[in-house]
Amino acid sequence: MTLAVYPGSFDPITNGHLSILRRALEIFPQIVVAIGRNSEKKSLFTVDERLEIIGEVTRNMNGVRAESFDGLLMNYVTGLGSNVVLRGMRAMSDFEYEFQMALMNRKINKDVQTVFLMTDYKWFYVSSTIIKEAASLGGNISGLVPQLVERRLADKFAQLRAARQG
Known about the structure:
Mean pLDDT: 93
Strand content: 15-25%
Largest sheet: 5 strands, parallel
Low-confidence stretches: none
């Protein structure tokens, strides 16, 4: 039974991420959605909030669980007893970065393989960054993220606006 690790920030998880997960479950019976803890990166949602959201939106996806990790991805992957990193790609702009990361990971541990899944065409332009920007400006993001994420984004930006005014 092969366990795949799907690392990322997932700030927030999008329908594009969920599409990759659904398709990956046809290949891998178990997938860990792994949130890397990175104190250098400024996130909208805390790691605990992201774990909660991911747990909720994947609760009906048998074989998927969410965890967070510190340190080197390769150490985390092998610590789980896995040898597969799952990554999604949208466009050529993703390719260069993902290619570099896969090669570096391979240099660190040649036994861990990176498997890429191309996004479905309808999620080609969707990224967590674009979703946050649109939501922060009151844009309509329905259909691009799960409804729970849409509500949590609205709540988060309302809290931030209230804090700035208060």
